[in-house]
Design brief:
Blueprint: E1 4-10, H1 12-29, E2 36-41, H2 45-52, E3 60-67, E4 80-83, E5 93-101, H3 105-115, E6 121-129, E7 142-146, E8 151-153, E9 169-172, E10 181-182
Parallel strand pairs: 2-3, 2-5, 5-6, 6-7
Antiparallel strand pairs: 1-9, 1-10, 3-4, 8-9
Bound molecules: 1-O-pyrophosphono-5-O-phosphono-alpha-D-ribofuranose (PRP).
1-O-pyrophosphono-5-O-phosphono-alpha-D-ribofuranose binds next to β2, β5 and α3.
């Protein structure tokens, strides 16, 4: 298990407020529709679970899994679909839900694949957007927070599978910016 030094970037209250705001916007845009929300495993499961409870429209939910990072903090160039959808997207209003977009390769790959399957509409939503790290052109329809440098964990995001359970989004600090150490499950020092 990785042991990291963490500090809070977005608190649970700040996240809740932003997710509510995203839910309101999405509900307005999809009024009268029955969208299919597609979560990208694993990181999006917490965000998606909270987001759907702020929607005023009926939805269906499905998941895909794309391999990209492994155990590293660096983005891989190769993206593979390792778990496919169980619900057809043909003719559906599809909203892809992602926790974080970095190089953009994962979301770009998935949007391309889903577009080939004939959805009625296709949009994307991410909680965290590292726009400055983009390696492929990509427009995201709904963005929670834009962020700059830093590797983040918590609220579904992991470091080598640890820290997904933290209720806040936290930056893993480097040796140059030391703070108190925190074990998974201890809570987080801000
Ligand atoms: C993370 C994140 C996105 C992807 C973004 O997933 O959840 O899916 O990386 O990176 P990109 O924009 O550079 O493609 P990860 O591979 O860490 O898997 P996980 O969701 O299971 O943690």
């Amino acid at each position: 298990m990785k042991k990291a030094k963490l500090h809070v970037l977005h608190s649970r209250d700040e996240i809740a407020e932003r997710v509510r705001w995203l839910g309101e916007r999405i509900s307005q845009d999809y009024e009268g529709r029955f969208p299919l929300l597609v979560g990208i495993l694993k990181g999006s499961f917490v965000f998606l679970a909270d987001l759907i409870r702020h929607l005023d429209v009926p939805v269906e939910v499905d998941f895909v899994r794309l391999a990209s990072y492994g155990d590293s903090m660096e983005s891989s160039k190769e993206v593979r679909l390792t778990k496919d959808l169980e619900i057809s997207v043909e003719g559906r209003d599809v909203l892809v839900v992602e926790d974080i977009v970095d190089s953009g390769r994962t979301l770009k790959e998935l949007l391309g694949e889903l577009a080939r399957r004939g959805p009625r509409s296709l949009r994307s939503c991410c909680l965290l957007d590292k726009r400055h790290r983009r390696e492929v052109p990509l427009e995201i329809d709904y963005v929670g927070f834009e962020m700059n440098e830093g590797f983040v964990v918590g609220y579904g995001l992991d470091w080598a599978e640890s820290y997904r359970h933290l209720p806040d989004i936290c930056v893993v600090e480097t040796e140059e910016t030391p703070s108190e150490e925190c074990e998974p499950g201890e809570g987080v020092k801000s």
